[in-house]
Amino acid sequence: MLHGMPKDAESESPEPLFLNDFRVGQTFHSGEYLMDESRIKAFAAEFDPQPFHLDESAAQASLFRGLAASGWHTAAVTMRLLVTSGLPFANGLIGLGGEIAWPNPTRPGDTLTVDSEILEIRPSKSKPKQGIVIVRSTTRNQKRETVYVFTANILAFRRD
Amino acid sequence: MLHGMPKDAESESPEPLFLNDFRVGQTFHSGEYLMDESRIKAFAAEFDPQPFHLDESAAQASLFRGLAASGWHTAAVTMRLLVTSGLPFANGLIGLGGEIAWPNPTRPGDTLTVDSEILEIRPSKSKPKQGIVIVRSTTRNQKRETVYVFTANILAFRRD
User: Rounded to two decimals, what is the model's pTM?
Assistant: First the structure.
């Protein structure tokens, strides 16, 4: 599909986009990623070693009422989906920061997809060749429940 | 050290803290974590497969001017430091979301530490046994450069 159309435009195209190609309201959709239970536990053991991410019975007794992936695992998988299919920035995805939220847990066996929308485009005043694109990426499971929202400030460059 | 002292109080104590134990201005300090080059590349291959996180010469030619860890790797390592030593919440660290920023890249060989400060405490109006603690965690390398800032909304529970 064509990119550069306002509001309800969609693009699943792998064509890399420059600063001038983005439009507010433009949307993008990633491929899928299956959350495997053994990877959930391995990620948690390395980076978020808490019982509700590591052990089924401890997780049942916790607030999560069952094994839940570390929120950082969901965040990292979202990044993979954005890099490999979800958000074709020409110079790669270089995030400066943003806001994150985890409204629901990610569970073993969940299939995640990411929908992104361009919220704002801010050309740099001091560096004419670059700008910031503000993108809201919403990660959902197969039931279309939102498990993660990342509103990111991403660096974009003008086409030479 | 005692916890619960305002402003310049410090705690490296592993003693788990409940909602009523936190005070605005209270600070916490984590242990250290060495960023290994092979783990930087493995993390990036799995979650953020971009040339500047994977390949030295591609990274030299990029905005980063040298190999840089994925920002999500820095975020995940920060979580590990908070869980294992940096932020002793009694019921574990359950984040609802927050703000993140990566002001500088993390490099192979960097040693990271995290300093946290309690910014705000919001008892829940509807659930008398719980509340939200807003914590700013600043991750620095061995040169004391800030590589990551996470201002988190973390769930806390009253002592029974």
Answer: 0.91
